[in-house]
């Protein structure tokens, strides 16, 4: 089964030694199943503020890009994202102010759904909210203690 990793999984690997060890142990064995959402690539580069950070992003994303495993939102994903935002706003109005913040998460979830991938994240709350309105395979992880 394909897998897709949320941005926070990569950030955890980039920002701490424990995160890097966790990532390499948990996800390197799954490299041939791994895809990356174009939205995640954008978020990673947006946060790479120095040359070292850019090199680390390229380390994790470059091989997937060369293998043609970038999953970009298509027009149907954008349409579905709008419908999901409207549905959440209507059925769970307490989250209305948060909708623009989780647009990227919705697009990541839709990418995972489209390719039949398990989506891994540390951010269970936002993805569970999305999943209440559009089903997809979600695996919520806990960071290693002390990192």
SSE blueprint and pairings:
Blueprint: E1 3-5, H1 7-15, H2 17-26, E2 34-37, H3 38-47, H4 51-66, E3 70-71, H5 75-91, H6 103-115, E4 118-121, H7 124-131, E5 137-140
Parallel strand pairs: 1-2, 1-4, 2-3, 4-5
What does this structure look like?
The chain is an alpha/beta fold. The protein has one domain (3-138): 5'-nuclease (Rossmann fold, 3-Layer(aba) Sandwich), CATH 3.40.50.1010. Helices cover 56% and strands 12% of the residues. A five-stranded parallel β-sheet has the order 3-2-1-4-5. Helix 1 (7-15) packs across helix 2 (17-26), helix 3 packs antiparallel against helix 4 and helix 5 packs across helix 6 (103-115). The radius of gyration is 15 Å and the shape is globular. The model has no long low-confidence stretch (mean pLDDT 93).
What is the total number of structural domains?
1
| Average pLDDT over all residues | 93
Question: If you compute it from the alpha carbons, what radius of gyration comes out, rounded to the nearest whole angstrom?
Answer: 15 Å
SSE succession: EHHEHHEHHEHE
Distance between the termini: 29 Å
Give me the CATH superfamily: 5'-nuclease
CATH hierarchy: architecture: 3-Layer(aba) Sandwich
Within the CATH hierarchy, at the fold level, what is the topology? Rossmann fold
Q: How many DSSP helices? A: 7
Strand order of the largest sheet: 3-2-1-4-5
């Amino acid at each position: 089964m394909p897998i897709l990793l949320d941005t926070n999984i990569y950030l955890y690997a980039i920002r701490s030694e424990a995160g890097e060890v966790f990532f390499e142990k948990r996800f390197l064995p799954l490299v041939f199943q791994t895809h990356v959402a174009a939205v995640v690539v954008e978020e990673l580069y947006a946060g790479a503020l120095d040359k070292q950070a850019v090199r680390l992003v390229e380390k994790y994303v470059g091989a997937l890009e060369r293998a043609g495993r970038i999953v970009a939102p298509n027009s149907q994903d954008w349409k579905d994202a709008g419908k999901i935002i409207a549905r959440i706003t209507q059925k769970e109005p307490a989250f209305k102010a948060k909708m623009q913040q989780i647009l990227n998460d919705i697009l990541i979830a839709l990418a995972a759904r489209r390719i039949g991938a398990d989506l891994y994240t540390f951010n269970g709350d936002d993805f569970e909210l999305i999943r209440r309105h559009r089903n997809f395979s979600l695996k919520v992880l806990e960071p290693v203690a002390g990192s």
